[in-house]
Amino acid sequence: MENKKIPVRKGNWVLGIALDLIRDPLGFLTSVTKEFSGIVTYRFASRYVVFLSDPKLIKHVMQTNNKNYRKGLQYEPLKLVLGNGLLTSDGGFWLRQRRIITPVFHKKYIVSFADQMVLSTQNLIVDWKKEEGKVFDIYPHMMQLTLDIVGKTMLSTNVKDKASAVGPALGVLMGFAINRVRAIVKIPLWLPRSANVRFKKKKKIIDDIVVDIIKKRRTTPSDHLDLLDMLMKAKDEETGEQMTDKQLKDEVMTIFIAGHETTASALTFAWLLLSQHPEKQKKFNEELDRVLGGKTPKMEHVPQLEYTLQIINEAMRLYPPAWIVARRGINEDSIGGYKTEKNANILICPYSVHRDPKLWQNAEEFIPERFEKEKMKNIDKFAFFPFGGGPRMCVGNNFALMEMQLVLAVIGQKYLLEEDKTHVVKLDPLITLRPNNGVKVRLVKRT
Ligand code: HEM
């Protein structure tokens, strides 16, 4: 086994590179990606990190030798809200859950949600009449929309019942978890600080609502099949085991959170880029007119909305919602001949890989055409990986892609979005990548 030494990015003798990373994480990781050839180590305060940007080395960790890696420390605050769901669990427990849940997200089942996705979008834009001709922030609208879609497809919520409180309340809980990610010193949750007490109280209310919904469903099934029904029926093919109420609760929370903010960000950045590139928006509108001919989008149109999909892929290349992926090595390893220690902290940044000029021509430019079907074959799976890769790849990727194509189609049929040149979008890279100050665009009715 080769035993090469990992190149070191030096930093301040006390804090290492901590200040650079805290000040501007995207800028710092992008410059390290350009400066080093695929692997580098640096010290973040007292912790050493191995940063990977070469697709071959990323594949080694996420796919080839994935059994040697568990989720990184960055996921810990999420556990407070999501419990032991698919996103945050590891090892045998994760594998069993994944085996049960993967079939539920198979294309043949999720197509049944297409009409709901369209309906939610149509309902959203009813209110946009008063915004026509004006500049408005599209980000909160995309958040509201994707939350509505995940709520309706997961729990068949109807605004009058308790289930409709789950999504918004989870947002508040995530705010608490995010503050813990930001905090340099993490105050233990058992301390009776008012924020901790408030968090626990709210968490209990949400847990009780979800458990209550699950219990009721055990005796009275809903009138149409939603994701919760599917999860309740799902079985481990090998053992025939099903999920307990507690596991179901954690997975419901996980899918709510994993499934709406990421999609809202991707949609928002797609609109931003379209507004900045009128010639691409024109091509997008032409596709909608050609494929839909003025009709309401349906599942059968989705495969034909090829340029719409290219726009989504290019938006996720430039602004990957899951901008950072972290792993912790269980045992020592050799990554492309570089030796790593037991418990090594591995960091991978899709944002910087997606913009690496070594991998992409005109890397900073918005060119949806680079994702044309024929060209896709030449793109390395770990040079473009907005949904991750290997066995822990996003379980909801088909759901998300279908949702984004339908949402863009319903809105693009009716509206043009024009850039507001006075508004400079700032990025907020935290758990997901989101616009810090919103994305302002002018809403123009298509004639
Ligand atoms: C544009 C939208 C989305 C993006 C960019 C995205 C991205 C990702 C990424 C990168 C991972 C892997 C993280 C890692 O390896 O550490 C992941 C995992 C996951 N995603 Fe998504 N996701 C999206 C939408 C969704 C949706 C719509 C759902 C569900 C409805 C979902 C559910 C999950 C779950 C449950 C996991 C954990 C899978 C596992 O570890 O087995 N995601 N997502």
Account of the 3D structure:
The protein is α+β, with helices and mostly antiparallel strands and 447 residues long. The protein has helices at residues 18-23, 25-35, 55-64, 76-82, 91-101, 107-110, 114-126, 139-155, 166-182, 194-219, 227-233, 245-276, 278-292, 306-318, 350-354, 373-376, 397-414, and strands spanning 39-44, 47-52, 69-71, 135-137, 325-329, 333-335, 338-340, 345-348, 415-419, 427-429, 433-435, 440-445. It has one domain (18-445): Cytochrome p450. The chain is 48% helix and 11% strand. Helix 10 packs across helix 12 (245-276) and helix 12 packs across helix 17. The model has no long low-confidence stretch (mean pLDDT 91). Protoporphyrin IX containing FE binds next to helix 12 and helix 17.
Strand line-up across the major sheet? 1-2-8-5-3
Stretches where pLDDT is under 50 for at least 5 consecutive residues are none
Percent helix range: 40-55%
CATH topology: Cytochrome p450
- Number of DSSP strands? 12
CATH class: Mainly Alpha
Helical segment tally?
A: 17
Topology record:
Layout: H1 18-23, H2 25-35, E1 39-44, E2 47-52, H3 55-64, E3 69-71, H4 76-82, H5 91-101, H6 107-110, H7 114-126, E4 135-137, H8 139-155, H9 166-182, H10 194-219, H11 227-233, H12 245-276, H13 278-292, H14 306-318, E5 325-329, E6 333-335, E7 338-340, E8 345-348, H15 350-354, H16 373-376, H17 397-414, E9 415-419, E10 427-429, E11 433-435, E12 440-445
Parallel strand pairs: 2-8
Antiparallel strand pairs: 1-2, 3-5, 4-12, 5-8, 6-7, 9-12, 10-11
Helix pairs in contact: 4-9, 7-8, 7-17, 8-12, 9-10, 10-12, 12-14, 12-17, 13-14
The structure holds protoporphyrin IX containing FE.
Protoporphyrin IX containing FE binds at residues 86-87, 98, 254-255, 258-259, 262-263, 266, 321-322, 325, 386-388, 392, 394-396, 399-400.
